[in-house]
Amino acid sequence: MMFKTHIAIAFLTGLGLLNILNIEHKILFVIAALTGASVVDIDLKTSKVGRRARPISTLFQFIFSHRGFFHTIFAGLILTVPFLILSKIGLAFGFFAGYLSHIIIDMFNPKGVRPLSPLFQLSLRGPIPVGSLREYALLAVLVFIDTLVLLKFTL
């Protein structure tokens, strides 16, 4: 999926969780969710985050391949550990929720993901190609819902 689609779903995830949880630092929580959703594509040197971290993303793409290890729940758990060490548990939860939102939305792509690899090789995939009209329609729906939820917070 496109970066903007990942951001839209992570934003919705962050806002949605704020409705459920008693989070002290609401803005930081949403930023953590957006960060979690963004970092997943560090394994693709041409992604938004990959271009900004080119030496690292090139190495990760070579070692793990795109939609490999970094597109698993286990990578998300490992990358959440620094948030647990350096911040409050709420921010770590926000990061992990954003990370999961990225993996889940990638399940709607025909290339799919293997979220439980290497333990299980179950590949989950769907009907929405990257950059397709279907993805733009999904993005429009997500932005619309994001706007409604955000308005609820401001009213």
Low-confidence stretches: none
* Topology order in helix (H) and strand (E) letters: HHHHHHH
CA(first)-CA(last) distance: 32 Å
Which overall shape is indicated by the principal axes computed on the Cα atoms?
globular
What's the Cα radius of gyration? 15 Å
Tally of DSSP helical segments: 7
What composes the largest sheet? none
Strand content: under 5%
Number of strands: 0
How many structurally independent domains? 1
Structural class: mainly alpha
Helix content: 55-70%
What is the average per-residue confidence, as pLDDT, rounded to a whole number? Answer: 95
Task: Describe, in short, the structure shown.
By secondary structure, the chain is an all-alpha fold. It has 7 helices and no strands.
Could you characterize what this model shows?
The chain has one domain. The chain is globular, with a radius of gyration of 15 Å. The mean pLDDT is 95. The protein contains seven helices and no strands. With 155 residues, it is mainly α. The longest helix has 22 residues, at 133-154. α1 packs antiparallel against α2 (26-39), α1 (3-20) packs across α6 and α2 crosses α6 (89-106). 66% of the residues lie in helices and 0% in strands.
